[in-house]
Amino acid sequence: MSKQVSENLTVTSFYLWFLLHGTQTGIAMLNFPGKIILGAERDAWVSILITGASIHLIVWMIFYVLDHSEHGDIISLHRQLFGKWLGNVLTLGFYGYILLFISTEVRSYVEVLHVWVFQWSPSWELTLIILLTSIYIVAGGFRVITGICFWCVMIPSIMLITLYFPMKYAHWMSFLPLLTHDASDYVKSAPRAVPLFLGAEFLLLYYPYIKNNKKAQKWAHLAAAHTTSLYLFFACVVFTYFNIEELKHTIWPTLILSKIIRFPFFERFDYLYVFNWFLIILPRICIALWGGTQILRKTVKLKARPALWLTSILLFVVIVQLKGPMTIDRLDALLSVSGTILLYGYIPLLVIWVSIIRMFKRSKLSARIESE
Question: In degrees, to the nearest 5, what angle opens at C-alpha 299 toward C-alphas 143 and 59?
């Protein structure tokens, strides 16, 4: 069976770079330095490299299992391996993960908007604006989403130039001496870097929409390397600007760096940073929302638009119930655990299961040939 949908719905494999990288960068960039230092401290950049390297292995695993899927996605693979009913249940479990993923991203960004810009705006208004924007984009189809991913990677990248200002006050000697921590410290920091790379798992859904998808793996690895380099750069800048104790008590260190940027014609440059982050989280929300729509369309047999609106309404109801920083922290922790289990537990299990089935089919075919 074809592992690619009709050509008029697909995008060039080059755009896999922006699709995967766009879904791996999000709101976690604002506060990750304060989390990963718990263990390896300033040597936590090593943990970023370790986690980034492991993502390349996960990407290879995803391509491996999808290459043996009937229609090239996780939905058909579940049905092949576990039957229609159990397969659909597992796919709907992935749908639940998508709801958690989007809820965490949207609610965390709304909290940033509340604290930084719109102190008196109710969360439901900000949530509604974000979801309606995402619905409008997703309704345009996968090609429109791909275009949004491209521009939402390119435009915010211009903001990297502004890191020149905090780098003027950087204390690079604070990294010395290098690599002074035990292996257990790096192991403690590495799992805290996993949420930074969540998003690669959505390749399990949009793989059939990539042209020549079997040969597109190099772009996925380039995207993972791009993400790792970006986080490594941000971490190094933050580590040289803040001391360890400051980072432990700073909620959004990446965002605070923007407060030292001053122009004669633009006093509150940090506002631009906050609004720029909407472009950064938009690809994650759109890809995940599109994925949830695809799951409902192929499992529950809903049409695309009702599935899109149903998913969005569920998200809106869930998000407006989430109140307070402690709730957001628990939600973030739940997503971190769920994403780690999915990437480092479930996907490797699928690889093992697919490999066992392949070996069984080969031995069965060999026995049949010998009997003939």
Answer: 55
CATH topology of domain 7-371: Amino acid/polyamine transporter I (1.20.1740)
> Would you state the pLDDT for residue 372?
59
Burial code (b: 16+ CB inside 10 Å, e: under 16) for 48-83 equals bbbbbebbeebbebbbebbebbebbbbbbbbbebee
At 301 the pLDDT is: 87
CA distances from 210 to 15, 106, 226, 290 (A): 8, 27, 19, 15
CB 99 within 8 A of CB 285: no
Mean pLDDT, to the nearest integer, of 135-153? Answer: 94
Omega before 177 within 30 of 0, i.e. cis: yes
- Which pTM value belongs to this model? 0.92
Q: SS3 of 305, please?
A: helix
Is residue 369 pLDDT above 70, yes or no? no
d(CA 242, CA 239): 6
By C-alpha distance, which of 193, 156, 160 is closest to 282?
Answer: 156
Helix (H) or strand (E) run with residue 151 in it: helix 142-157
302 SS3 class: coil
Instruction: Say yes or no to pLDDT of 1 above 50.
Output: no
Which is nearest to 287 in space by CA: 83, 147, 109?
147
Cβ atoms within 10 Å of 229's Cβ, excluding its own: 13
Counting other chains too, the contacts that 267-273 makes at CB distance below 8 Å and 24 or more residues apart are 269/162, 270/116, 271/116, 271/117, 273/159
Element (H, E) at 338: helix 325-341
Q: What's the pLDDT tens digit per position in 302-335?
A: 999 999 999 999 999 999 998 888 888 899 999 9
DSSP string, 262-326: -BTTBS-HHHHHHHHHHHHHHHHHHHHHHHHHHHHHHHT---HHHHHHHHHHHHHHHHHH--SHH
Please, is 264 exposed, middle or buried when counting C-beta atoms within 10 Å of its C-beta (0-12, 13-18, 19+)? Answer: exposed
SS3 11: strand
- The domain spans of the chain are 7-371
pLDDT in tens, 5-58: 888 889 999 999 999 999 999 888 888 888 888 877 788 888 899 999 999 999
